């Protein structure tokens, strides 16, 4: 008789060995392409020379962080990054939920299917393409918006020299591009809700609006919290593709549009120091990781089922 294995983990590994074997390719893929490249984090602490490589470059400690944190610019850039991402998360969640509930309440017909297709279409258009089209709308003299304002007898807007107009523009552009795809995710969650709950509520005299607020929204809470937690990890990401495609290197707009990613991208092109850019990337990653842990802890305290881990 073979000896009884006391370790529960080892016993489970032996019992489910074929299932674990199926996971080996995914584990190896993650190790090779996600964890081994993390050795490159050490570049943030080096005067990196591509010819010498990671192990041959000079170690300079925290000097690479000084180029970003010196002066007051990093405060404004960090605030822009965080405020934009908070705006994107809040407005995107509200708009996606609203669209999902509205389309679900309309039922299944050709009009709803057509609207779904039109909603997710912007998600597949790249930001550089959108940036090219935006020039036709925002150009001072010949832009569509200013031409319309002139016909209405109103003053034109200097979009590319006035930094104050861009925060709402960027929020609206992000909504237009992402809200439709987010609505599809919430619609899938709504479809999974037991229909008998709605039937029982209607028998008790509940209105359609009451069903939305007392059944649909409460049962979507876990999905909303999960997507929020996933978004928190990228709250220090600067949406480089969107902002740079729409704004570019326009110095007039840096005060309200410059984020960490755009700042680092310019620094990489002008200074060519990979160590400095890696230092800021590490700063973003560490803060994003901490925010996810804190947000998950808060979510687990409020509702264990809503926590990510």
Compact description:
It holds the Pfam family BPD_transp_1. This protein has 309 residues and is mostly helical. It is 68% helix and 1% strand.
Helix-strand blueprint:
Layout: H1 8-15, H2 17-35, E1 46-47, E2 58-59, H3 63-69, H4 73-105, H5 110-120, H6 127-138, H7 144-151, H8 166-191, H9 195-203, H10 208-219, H11 221-232, H12 240-246, H13 254-257, H14 260-271, H15 274-302
Helix pairs in contact: 3-15, 4-8, 5-8, 6-12, 11-15, 14-15
Structure report:
There is one protein chain. The chain has 15 helices and 2 strands. By secondary structure, it is an all-alpha fold. It has a two-stranded antiparallel sheet. The chain has 2 domains: about 10-60, no CATH class; about 70-305, MetI-like fold (Orthogonal Bundle), CATH 1.10.3720.10. The mean pLDDT is about 85. The chain is about 70% helix and about 0% strand. It is found in: Cell membrane. This is Sugar ABC transporter permease. It holds the Pfam family BPD_transp_1.
What is the assembly state of the chains in this entry?
single chain
Question: What's the main sheet like?
Answer: 2 strands, antiparallel
What is the CATH architecture assignment of the largest domain? Orthogonal Bundle
What is the CATH level 1 assignment of the largest domain? Mainly Alpha
Shape: flat
Structural class based on helices, strands and sheet pairing: mainly alpha
Helix content: 55-70%
Largest sheet, order of strands side by side? Answer: 1-2
CATH topology of the largest domain: MetI-like fold
Strand fraction: under 5%
Nearest-integer average pLDDT: 84
**If you compute it from the alpha carbons, what radius of gyration comes out, rounded to the nearest whole angstrom?**
25 Å
Order of helices and strands: HHEEHHHHHHHHHHHHH
How many domains is the backbone divided into?
A: 2
């Amino acid at each position: 008789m073979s000896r009884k294995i006391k370790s529960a983990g080892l016993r489970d590994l032996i019992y489910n060995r074929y299932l674990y074997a199926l996971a080996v390719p995914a584990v190896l893929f993650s190790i090779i392409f996600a964890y081994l490249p993390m050795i490159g984090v050490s570049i943030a602490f080096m005067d990196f020379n591509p010819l010498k490589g990671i192990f041959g470059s000079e170690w300079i400690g925290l000097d690479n962080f000084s180029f970003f944190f010196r002066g007051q610019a990093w405060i404004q850039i960090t605030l822009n990054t965080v405020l934009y991402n908070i705006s994107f998360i809040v407005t995107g969640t509200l708009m996606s939920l609203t669209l999902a509930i509205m389309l679900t309440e309309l039922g299944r017909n050709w009009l709803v299917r057509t609207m779904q297709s039109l909603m997710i279409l912007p998600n597949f258009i790249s930001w550089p393409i959108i940036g090219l089209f935006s020039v036709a709308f925002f150009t001072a003299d010949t832009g569509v918006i200013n031409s319309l304002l002139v016909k209405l007898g109103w003053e034109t807007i200097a979009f590319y020299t006035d930094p104050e107009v861009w925060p709402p523009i960027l929020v609206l552009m992000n909504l237009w591009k992402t809200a439709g795809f987010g609505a599809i995710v919430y619609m899938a969650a709504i479809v999974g809700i037991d229909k008998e709950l709605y039937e029982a509520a209607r028998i008790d005299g509940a209105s359609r609006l009451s069903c939305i607020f007392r059944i649909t929204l409460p049962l979507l809470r876990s999905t909303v919290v999960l997507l929020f937690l996933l978004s928190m990890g990228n709250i220090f990401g600067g949406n480089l593709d969107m902002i740079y495609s729409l704004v570019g290197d326009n110095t007039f707009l840096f005060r309200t549009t410059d984020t960490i990613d755009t700042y680092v991208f310019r620094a990489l092109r002008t200074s060519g120091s990979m160590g400095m850019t890696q230092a800021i990337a590490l700063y973003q990653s560490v803060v994003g990781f901490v925010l996810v842990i804190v947000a998950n802890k808060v979510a687990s305290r409020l509702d264990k089922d809503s926590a990510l881990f």
